[in-house]
Amino acid sequence: MKKLESIQIRPAQTSDIAQVVQVHIQAFPGFFLTLMGTRFLRLLYSGFLNHPTGISLVACPQAKPSEVIGFVVGTTQPQGFFSQLLRQHWLAFAMASLWPLLKKPGLVFVKLWSALFYRGESLPDQPNAALLSSLGVKPTAQGQQIGQQLVSAFLAHAQTAGATAVYLTTDQSDNTKANHFYTKLGFKLAGTCKRPHGRILNRYLIKLNA
Question: To pair with 135 at 20 to 30 A between CA atoms, which of 22, 125, 153, 181?
């Protein structure tokens, strides 16, 4: 992709979901959610878009406002968000999980079961913290500070919605670029958490100005 002169960040629309899924697949090759397939990802990102506590933003070239080259999603009430999403749309998620379950039954079952009780790795001392759940930029559009713009817009939307802080988790190991990215933006390391199969995540927090 040629260097973009200007980018706009706008709220995502239903018509953007297919492109958001494709950006996710390109940005996260080999990751668990990518292995779950496009149908599962469409349900997940539609969930963020349609939930009243969800924040769903996309980055587009000013000249092509319908072309999605990056996205960020999250929720202002992470406690119970994912379990509620699965329970409300359990049949659709079950159908979307059938083929991945057949290919990798142990991994998929453990991940989906834990999602039913997942509370967003929230911080007890930050009850009004929003969760930045996923951030992705098209590989061909990287290097233009699109990720930074998306995060800044997410922080602003979270604050408008009443959040006093924003937190996120990212892999601790073999993930220097992402860890540096968030610390450079002002996020502070607020501990670690352990996920199924021994995966260690760093938890980052940034407080929002009153």
Answer: 125
If one compares 207 and 102, the residue with the highest pLDDT of the two is 207
The answer, yes or no, to whether residue 19 has pLDDT greater than 70, is yes
Dihedral, 155, 159, 161, 163 alpha carbons, nearest 10 = 100
Q: CA-CA distances (angstroms) from residue 180 to 119, 139, 152, 157, 165?
A: 25, 18, 16, 23, 19
Domain boundaries, the chain: 7-207
| Amino acid symbol at 125 | D
Distance between CA 77 and CA 124 in Å, rounded? 13
Residue 116 has pLDDT above 50, yes or no: no
Domain 7-207 adopts which CATH fold? Aminopeptidase (3.40.630)
CA dihedral sign, ordered 109, 110, 116, 122: negative
Helix, strand, coil percentages, rounded to 5, for the chain: 45, 25, 30
pLDDT given at position 95 = 73
Residue 1 in this model has a pLDDT that exceeds 50: no
The dihedral sign for the CA sequence 19, 103, 83, 196: negative
Cite the beta strand spans of 23-174 per DSSP E: 54-61, 70-75, 129-137, 165-171
Kindly report the length of the chain: 210
| Rounded Cα gap, residues 176 and 55, in angstroms | 26
